[in-house]
Design a protein that fits this description.
Immunoglobulin-like; Jelly Rolls; elongated; disordered N terminus; 3% helix; 1 helix; 7-stranded mixed β-sheet; mainly beta
Length: 516
């Protein structure tokens, strides 16, 4: 009889253990959730929702020199009780391992050097070092690992890991070790004879130097590359990197004969061009975006040598950078640009009032080499621009899928035909919104532009801890509409913030901004 009772008791315990996790209500401990573990472990603060709300309790993770760990929270869809395998927890009850989030904090001393920081997650994960977001993979996903080499100066540094679990499997891993590959050498030498020196970095803001290569050829400084495609290895440098969340700085000294030139750059994502070594920017589009091009005219009265710097960063998805300078540019053409609007390629250009153009032939190419005429614009179609120039536009209702290249053949009444520079429009851009500027100036204004109509639009600004500091309802936004967000009254101290643009509760776009 006793054996039967024991069997019934054991069976009941097993049934309880296998019962799916259900929501529990218990009091939350009074923990200071901003406290970091000082040393080789982590304080892990658990929340009952995916957005760091409804605090549940704290656990302690990590072992070894750097506090590495690999945690599956005792399985999917179970009641997690860290008493089973951890120490120093403040849980008052177990936590269901579905739709929860964790923020981990550590402060430790590093010897100066470059370290490989690796995080793995199912689902979203972010890693901050001293407030700088160095890994940002905040999306629902099957388990994947992400590594970022990062230079640490000697002394104490604060690390923060953020993680959320949506449903299904869950896992969070962290590993830190001295970098397996370290690139050395100069990063300031400039190219010559139309061949750029290209310096590659892991991270979107030139965080960790990974090696150098060249771009352009003696006949032309043209740059037009997608680095081999999305999520591929960029080789040919000391430490190969993934074509995701990286940056490149191109340098070239070039002498221009007296004359007028059209400088054109493009990128997906951020890109900017300087003619004075990076002191000022002739063109600056330093934000996440689908591919597009911008052009500026510069006139040199005498032969002039300039120190060109082209900077580029890639965030996620498509990547491409473009540079061209037109040496055959007619003096009359002062602007030529193109954008994708309502699934059509829209071209705009301007000429000076004294120009003597007869008409323009618009040419298109799928490879940037072989061009075909797709339309003609007569000089009689010009309209007056506010700056006194004459303005033209042309719509291509059937652009090519992917990258399309455009140029103008300019037929002048008083001279031979000449060509404009080339612009590139990508019809497969995935950008849904633009947020700018990324460095907040003294005007304290933030602009949000949607590339599609959206209802119930909202902007949320969060600090590095993920806490909202400003939420603004925008209501209904039409395609291309720009909303202005004054920040004068927002509690934004110096630092880095995440801006989220949402529509109907779904994230359309996210962008880091800096308050200097």
């Amino acid at each position: 009889m006793k054996s039967k009772l024991l069997l019934v008791l054991i069976s009941g315990m097993m049934l309880f253990a296998l019962t799916p996790a259900t929501a529990q209500t218990c009091s939350a401990p009074n923990d200071n959730q901003n406290t970091s573990y000082s040393g080789n472990r982590w304080y892990a603060y658990f929340y009952r929702n995916e957005d760091f709300t409804s605090y549940h309790g704290r656990a302690t993770y990590g072992s070894g020199t750097y506090g590495n760990f690999d945690e599956d929270f005792q399985g999917s869809n179970v009641n997690y009780d860290p008493d089973w395998d951890l120490i120093s927890n403040t849980f008052n009850c177990s936590l269901p391992t579905e739709t929860f989030s964790v923020r981990l904090r550590q402060t430790r001393n590093f010897t100066a050097g470059t370290y490989d920081f690796t995080v793995g997650a199912d689902d979203g994960v972010r890693l901050y070092v001293d407030g700088n977001l160095i890994i940002d993979e905040w999306q629902t996903q099957v388990y994947a690992t992400f590594t970022m080499p990062y230079y640490m100066s000697a002394g104490n540094h604060t690390l923060v890991i953020e993680y959320y679990e949506s449903n299904g499997e869950n896992r969070l891993r962290y590993n830190c070790a001295p970098a397996a590959c370290v690139a050395t050498g100069t990063t300031t030498a400039t190219g010559t004879n139309n061949v750029w020196r290209a310096y590659f970095y892991d991270g979107k803001n030139f965080e960790t130097f990974r090696g150098s290569s060249t771009a352009g050829v003696a006949a032309s400084p043209l740059i037009n590359t997608n680095f081999g495609g999305d999520l591929v290895t960029i080789s040919g440098i000391t430490c190969p990197i993934l074509s995701e969340t990286f940056s490149v700085r191109y340098r070239l000294n070039k002498t221009f004969a007296a004359g007028t030139y059209l400088f054109t750059i493009g990128g997906d994502d951020g890109h900017r061009l300087s003619l004075d070594g990076g002191a000022t920017w002739l063109i600056s589009n330093w934000h996440d975006q689908g591919f597009g091009t911008s052009a500026v005219v510069r006139t040199f009265a005498v032969n002039t040598t300039v120190n060109m710097v082209l900077e580029y960063y890639e965030n996620h998805q498509g990547n491409q950078v473009f540079f061209d300078v037109a040496t055959t540019l007619p003096v009359s053409l002062v602007k030529f640009e193109g954008r994708l609007t309502n699934n059509e390629s829209t071209l705009n250009w301007q000429v000076t009032p004294e120009s003597t153009e007869d008409y323009f032939e618009v040419e298109r190419s799928t490879d940037g080499r072989q061009y075909n005429k797709i339309g003609t614009v007569s000089s009689t179609q010009a309209v007056a621009a506010v700056n006194g120039n004459r303005q033209y536009n042309f719509r291509d209702p059937n652009p090519v899928a992917g990258n399309g290249f455009y140029r103008l053949k300019i037929i002048d009444k008083s001279g031979p035909a000449k060509y404009s520079s080339i612009i590139n429009i990508n019809t497969q851009s995935t950008s849904k919104a633009k947020i700018y500027p990324t460095i907040i100036d003294q005007n304290k204004l933030l602009f949000i532009q949607s590339d599609r109509s959206a209802t119930d639009a909202e902007v949320s600004i969060r600090n590095i801890s993920g806490q909202p500091v400003l939420i603004k309802k925008l209501g209904t936004m039409t395609r291309g509409q720009i909303a202005t967000l004054p920040l004068q009254d927002a509690a934004l101290s110096k630092g880095t913030y995440m801006v989220l643009v949402l529509a109907g509760g779904a994230v359309m776009h996210r962008q880091l901004i800096t308050v200097p």
